[in-house]
Specification:
With 430 residues, the protein is an alpha+beta fold. It folds into two domains: 229 residues, Distorted Sandwich (Acetylcholine Binding Protein, Chain: A), CATH 2.70.170.10; 190 residues, Up-down Bundle (Methane Monooxygenase Hydroxylase, Chain G, domain 1). It contains eight helices and 14 strands. Strands 1, 2, 3, 5, 6, 7, 9 and 10 form an eight-stranded mixed beta sheet that branches. Strands 4-8-14-11 form a four-stranded antiparallel beta sheet, with no helix packed on it. The two termini are 64 Å apart. The N terminus is likely disordered. GO terms for molecular function: extracellular ligand-gated monoatomic ion channel activity; transmembrane signaling receptor activity. Belongs to the ligand-gated ion channel (TC 1.A.9) family. Pfam families: Neur_chan_LBD, Neur_chan_memb.
Amino acid sequence: MLFDQSCIISLLMSVAFGASMTPLKKRIEAHMKRPPQSGYDRPLNVEIGFYLESLGNFRETQMTFDTDMYMYMSWRDSTLNHSDEQHIMVNDNDIRNQMWLPDLYFANAKTAQFHHVTIPNFSMFIAKDGTIAYSCRVTLTVACNLDLKDYPMDVQNCQIRILSYAYIASAVNVTWFKKSAIQYNPEISLPEYEIISITPAYCNGTYRYAVMPNSYRVDQFSCLVANIRLHRSIGYTLVQSYFPTGLIVIISWVSFWIDRAAVPARVTLSFSTMLSLTTLGNGLRYGLPQVSYAKAIDFWFGGCMLFVFCSLLEFAVVNSYMRQSERNDKLSGKSLRTKGKKNIKEGDSEGGIEKKRDVREFRSDSQVGQVLIENPDQVSSRNLAEHHAQLSRKYSSMALSIDKACRYGFPAAFIVWNIAYWSYYLSTER
């Protein structure tokens, strides 16, 4: 006898009318673990439905997510029909284990488990015509190949695939419920995603089975897939990444307003912004998988890094012009001092008041513009001093012009970059 007394009592308590229990019990024993026969060489139709109780714990680095759901299955076993007007409920685990159940499995699940607290979470009802309604609660960790090219403006398509493990489609045909095949808890709230849709579909395909060392068979298997379409919420990444990096770029522009000669201040500011931007970028990449392609946020960080680097490069150019200006300013002063020394030496050698007068006349010439007749060396020294002074003013003016141009050019370029970036990644066509 396959049933002990406790199982029979449990099943009797689950039946609305106990009179039909004995023949039903015998039929279960007679057809234990055998798939029901649909007749006329037709496959047994097993209909499936889901109710997603929870969804979450998306792990980008592992490319997995968790779901807790109720799984509903229905098929017809004509050997279990009865005369009761009400459904017969089976809630004994031992009886369930002795009945045939669809051998369904989740193809892309890394782990799966049934719930057993406080008792095994399942229910089974047998209708008058032998139609069985079976439900159970399952928790899955499902693999999802994330496409992060548009991260963090990405839309992800995750799937839950289910199919029969041993029965080909001509023996057991697995289909979705015709109405409301997939439902989900409206209170599901994901911290990073918004649910766009969860829709049923089919993934029927040809698979190998009965694999042996030298042979195998190929046939059609029925496969169901639940497509979960998610849109990532960008709010968190805006606050944690986009705003700080944008502010760092803006802070780097402060160097354009600092005095051109304040080299330590401008160097410190430029390198501090570069270091801060690099630190933020490394922190973000730590929480993402190391994929072989560039993500949207990588292009953003690259653009910000380019702007900060260009501000540092601008300082290098300005500093080069300022050093040229200082060098020519020193050469101009040196030429004037050399000229003065020559005049004094000439006055001493000629020993007269005439040369002293020449010196006085030269000084008055610089003040009131009198035309004097001087020695060729004096004219050359004065022209050289004026030449260096002009170069000094020219280089200083060029440095100032670059600073002034960058004060408005960098913000304008950054605005254009933002318009192009956000227009591309936020376009509805993507």
